[in-house]
Specification:
The structure is a homodimer. Chain A contains 10 helices and 12 strands. Chain A is of the alpha+beta class. In chain A, about 55% of the residues are buried.
Chain lengths: ~325, ~325
C-alpha cells in the first residue's frame, strides 16, 4: 500500500463538524469559522533526516525548506499566509545548529508574513513537522477538484531544477559550476509561489503544488476532478542547464522527481486572457503544457509519439 | 538549556499578524479570524517511540494518547474541539498496527467531536505529531496569565495515578491487581477534561493541563501571571491505591511525574461559589490545594513543614 492509499484506507472519513469545508485529500484543509470573513487553510508536512534531507545538511537550509514545503501548500490553495506551528525532534540541543535552523526558518517566515504561534520540542531522531495556517475568501480556495475537459494545463516557473541539482550534487550529472549554483538554490531554497497562487484566485479551476513530481501531482488533480490530460513534452519549461543535461538525464527529472514546488493549475479557455493579464506581473512565467480531456489518466506526447517515464513520483510506502 | 528555555531563546518573537491573539507559550495559540464569532485555539504535540511511549506499546493506546495530550491542551483553554491533523512517521506500513492505532485515535476523536482534516505520512522512526484546533468565544479562553494573589488553586480529579501506573508496570511498586487496572487505564487512556474546561469559562482566572507534573505546570501559571503559590500537601487529591503506595513512593508521583492530564486552575475568591455550583456536574471533582500569593515560586507545606520534591518535572533537554 502506498502513502496515499494508506491515508485513504485508514484515516479518511467524511467530516462531521459543519465548520470543516474540506477535509483530508487536498493541499490544505479548509475551515469556515462561524461568521468569519475568511476561511482558514491548514496544512502540515514532516521532514525526516536521511529521508527528506541529508544527514549533515545545513540547519538554515533545513529550517527554510521545512517551512517552504508547507508554504507551497498554502500557495496551491491561493491562501494568504497567517501563522505556523513548529514541532522539533532533536537528538540533542545543539546551539549552533538551532540558531542556524532558526535563521533559515525565519528568513522565509518573514518573507511571506507567517507568525510562529506554537509547537513542541522533544528529544528524538532529527525530524521537523510544521503546520501552517492561511486564510482565503470563502468559496475561492483553489482545490484539486475543479478541472474540466477543455481546460488548459499550466505550470509556473521551470521544472526539474531541484532534481537536476540533486543529481549534480550526488555526481550523477556533470555541469559547469556556474550552472550548478542556481540548481542547488532551487533544491535547498525553493520559492513557494504565494503571490502567484493568490493571483490565480478566480482564474484557475484547480491547482496543486509540485512536490512529488508533475505527473504524480497532476494525477491528483485528474483523480479529484474525474478527468484525464494530455501533455506535450516539447512545451515543458526547462532551463538551459536542463537542456545541457537532457541527453544524460532525459525528461524524468522534470516529470517525476519532484521537489520543484512550482504550481500546476488548470484554466478554463474563457479565462486564458485573464491569465495572460496577470502573467506579466510574475517573472516565473506560466507555461501551457497541455489540456484536460474527458476520461482518466495522463498521456504524455513528444514529437514522435507517447512518452513513458522511467519511474513514478516519490511515494514513501510504494512497494 | 531546557525545553522551555530552548523555545524562548530561539523561537519566541512577538507576533505581527493582527489575527494572532496569543502566540508561543500557552497551552494553545489563539487566532481571531476577521469577523468570526469564535476564536481558534491551536495546539500541537509530538510523541516519539521510546521517549513518550514504550517500544511495543499497543497501537490503540498510542493513537488514543497522541490525540489525548492535544485534546487536554484544548481543555485547558476551555475550547470546544473542532478538528485535528495527523503526522505519522512509520518505519514500515504495518496494517495490523495501523488499524489498531486508528481505532484508538478515532475512539477519542469521536468521543470529543474532532474531525481529522489532514496530515502527512512519511517513512521514518515511529513518531506521531498531532495538531488540534478548537474554538472559544473571543476573550474567554483560559490562559496561564490571569492568576492573582488571593485566588484559590484547584486541580480536577486525582493526581499521580498515571505515575503510579508507570511505577507498577515497571515493577517499582507492588499493588494488588485490582488496584493496578485503573492506574494503567489512566496512564494509557487519560481523560482530557474537555467538558470541565468549558464549564470553567468565566470562573477560572488561569488554567493549564498537568502534563509535566503539578509543580512544573503550576509553575508556568505562576511565571506567566507574575505570582507565587503555597500548596498544602494534605489537600492533594490522591486515590486509595496512592495512599497504599505512599510509604514507598512518597508525594513525588503526584507532584512532579506528570502524565495526569488533569486541569490545574485558579479561581478568584468571589467566584468560588460559582465553581461549587458547577462542580456537582463533574464526577472528577475540583479540589482546593492551596492559594496564589504575591511574589514568585511555589512553597509546598505538609503537616510538619516544607516539602522538597526529589526531582523536577519532566523536561526533554534538562541537563
Amino acid at each position: 500500500m502506498d502513502e496515499f492509499g494508506l491515508i485513504e484506507h485508514y484515516f479518511k472519513r467524511p467530516p462531521r463538524q459543519t465548520e470543516v469545508v474540506l477535509g483530508v485529500g487536498d493541499d490544505a484543509a479548509l475551515l469556515a469559522v462561524q461568521g468569519a470573513a475568511r476561511q482558514l487553510a491548514v496544512t502540515t508536512d514532516t521532514l525526516i533526516e536521511g529521508v527528506h534531507f541529508a544527514s549533515g545538511a545545513a540547519g538554515c537550509d533545513v529550517g527554510y525548506k521545512a517551512l517552504a514545503v508547507n508554504v507551497s501548500d498554502l500557495a496551491a490553495m491561493g491562501a494568504r499566509p497567517l501563522a505556523f506551528l513548529l514541532n522539533l525532534s532533536l537528538p540533542k540541543a545543539d546551539a549552533a545548529w538551532l540558531a542556524d535552523f532558526r535563521d533559515g526558518l525565519f528568513a522565509l517566515a518573514d518573507a511571506v508574513g507567517l507568525d510562529l504561534i506554537g509547537g513542541d520540542t522533544v528529544r528524538g531522531p532529527l525530524a521537523i513537522t510544521i503546520t501552517a495556517l492561511g486564510t482565503v475568501a470563502p468559496g475561492e480556495a483553489l482545490t484539486r477538484r475543479g478541472a474540466r475537459a477543455g481546460d488548459r494545463i499550466y505550470v509556473s516557473g521551470l521544472l526539474g531544477e531541484a532534481a537536476l541539482g540533486f543529481l549534480a550534487r550526488s555526481g550523477r550529472v556533470s555541469l559547469p559550476p556556474s550552472m550548478q549554483a542556481p540548481l542547488f538554490a532551487r533544491l535547498d531554497r525553493p520559492l513557494p509561489r504565494i503571490a502567484e497562487g493568490q493571483a490565480l484566485l478566480g482564474i484557475a479551476s484547480a491547482a496543486i503544488d509540485i512536490s512529488d513530481g508533475l505527473l504524480a501531482d497532476l494525477g491528483h488533480i485528474l483523480q479529484a476532478s474525474g478527468v484525464g490530460a494530455t501533455l506535450d513534452l516539447r512545451r515543458l519549461p526547462v532551463s538551459d542547464a536542463y537542456v545541457a543535461a537532457l541527453a544524460t538525464v532525459g525528461y524524468d527529472p522534470a516529470l517525476v522527481f519532484g521537489d520543484d514546488y512550482e504550481l500546476c493549475f488548470t484554466v478554463p479557455p474563457e479565462r486564458v486572457p485573464a491569465l495572460a493579464g496577470i502573467a506579466t506581473r510574475f517573472a516565473c512565467g506560466f507555461h501551457d503544457i497541455g489540456g484536460i480531456v474527458a476520461g482518466a489518466g495522463c498521456v504524455v506526447r513528444d514529437g514522435e509519439g507517447l512518452y513513458v517515464p522511467a519511474r513514478a513520483g516519490y511515494n514513501h510506502f510504494h512497494d
